[in-house]
Amino acid sequence: MKITLLGTGVPKPQLHRASSGYMVEVGDDVILFDQGPGTYHRMMEAGKRAVDITHVFFSHLHYDHCLDYARLLLTHWDQGAGKVPELNIYGPPHTKRMTQALIGRNGAFGPDLEARVMAQGSIDVYQSRGGTGIRKKPKPKVAEIRSGQTITGNGWKVTARSVPHVQPYLVSYGFRMETPEGVFAYSGDCGPCTAMVKLAQDADVLVYMCPYYSGTERSKEYAKGAAGHLEIAQMAKQAKAKSLVVTHVLPQIDKPGMREKVLREIGEIYKGNIYYGEDLMEIPIGNPAPKSHEK
Amino acid sequence: MKITLLGTGTPAPSLKRMSSGYMVEVGDDLILFDHGPGAHHRMLEAGKNATDVTHVFFSHLHYDHCLDYMRLLMTHWDQGAGDIPELKVYGPPHTKRMTQAIIGKNGVFGPDLEARTKHQVSIDVYESRGGKGQRQKPKPEVTEMRSGQVIKGNGWKLRVTSVPHVQPYLISYGFRLDTDEGSFVYSGDCGPCNAMRKLAKGADVMVYMTHYLSGTEPSKSFAKGVAGHMEVAEVGQTAGVKNLVVSHVLKQMDEPGLRERVLRDMSKVYKGNLFFGEDLMEIPLAAPMATDRER
Fold first, then answer.
1. Which end of chain A, N or C, is more open, meaning fewer C-beta atoms within 10 Å of its C-beta?
2. ipTM of the predicted structure?
């Protein structure tokens, strides 16, 4: 089991932090949790291609969590040339309609797909990639999940629970993934809540959104749907998570001195391992251990 | 007037070459020609943000030419916070429907936009970015163009012409941008054609899709809609173009030795200045000049 952070930023465009995205490799499966703008680029930098992806889980459908889905979907299909299995997609309500709005007949890429399966020039390209027979349009397997639902894969199990973010406009989920090697929990976007404490119970790795410095929230409403650094410290402590990853950070806390202050204050509450997330960081299962000086 | 190549690749995912995208700065306007997957990342690397972009022209709606439109549209709106003019978007038929499929009520980001304009969490964020009053959804000014149409901007004039690619499935355009400082011509995707020979007459810079090594085309039909290196050389020479940019290159010819062979072959036919395009390359309007040895 290998956990890679693909995007640790916010909607604000930044070259050093793509929007939200995480990648977990378990056995032969490569599973993405959210795929915000820029995370596809990071995925390539991590050495993976669209055709390597088997499953995608969306926590919620804010664009900073799902915008690169279009790139994944089209590239997986186009480069796959009918030789790789269809993508397995899991998300909240609207995930099916979103997929149709991308690849349906009247969708954003409807005419593209029509052209790529019908025009001789494109059929030539398809065949040069090893495609055989009549070219078919993409048919990802899309499942809209409910809170409490468990999805079982080959050597892994994912449980989704509803978490508070911007309801009723968008349904948001947190996830817990169990494998024989360890447990990974991901908050999606949410404020402090018992649902996440349950999902993260004794988890080896908990990735929790930490956009802001607690106390600087603009409204009470904001603090219900988004977590500050002290809130995630409490969540991780209650859940007894072994490692906590700080991510989805605003520039507000992502600067010299502030970062250290945030870590010190989290450390006063939460006694496990803390990781200040960066794009392309790998999070180990188990404790971080120093190598010898010369390595 | 400044011309920057943002994406010089094909649909094949590559960290070196993003899919098609070009950026031209004229006066206060920042104009994008096509915005394929990865082009937005390059734009950030070139130091520009979504909110800096004023106009977008789509040559055709294959996803490798328009996929990052979503990222541009959503980020321009979200970061702009109602403070900047709406994007002006020009493209072939389906551009309006594509836009609706992305941001319409039932579109990909319909629920995202509903949530971001209605939920207090998002209104807080909007106000912290300087947004005032009731938050409005994006309303880009989308124009579907006809062949022969002329579009006038502040200090520039753009001419559109239909070019052969994968008709009847997608309509494809070539463009010529004239300014006081010089002229820029872009083929979009097309085979050799009189429309481009005419459009590019005496142009300072022409970017032409130079997809493959002439003679290796898989079919006659393919070669009508896609240009090889010798075809591009002929069009450049016939039109009397000063600077010719090789772009949209397959890996087939993007190899040591082959690249040099392409340039040598093309030089036998085309007598102007050749530029083998790379992402983030700036193309001068004048002839390239050797600088002093020590610089």
1. C
2. 0.92
Q: Which amino acid, B185? A: V
Contact (Cβ atoms closer than 8 angstroms) between residue A285 and residue A181: yes
Range of the domain at B222: 2-283
Instruction: Report chain A residues whose CB lies below 8 A from the CB of B106.
Output: 97, 101
| B-chain residues near A61 (CB < 8 A) | 109, 111-112
Residues of A in contact with B112 (CB under 8 A): 61-63, 170
Q: What is the pLDDT of residues B172-206, one digit of tens each?
A: 999 999 999 999 999 999 999 999 999 999 999 99
pTM comes to 0.94
Contact check, Cβ <8 Å, A226/B121: yes
How many domains are there within chain A? Answer: 1
Are the Cβ atoms of A71 and B37 closer than 8 angstroms? yes
User: Are B212 and B222 within 8 A, CB to CB?
Assistant: no
- Whether A28 and chain B come into contact, CB under 8 Å, resolves to no
Q: Does residue B44 sit within a domain?
A: yes
CATH label of the domain that carries residue B41: 3.60.15.10
Domain count across chain B = 1
CB pair distance less than 8 Å for A102 and B111: no
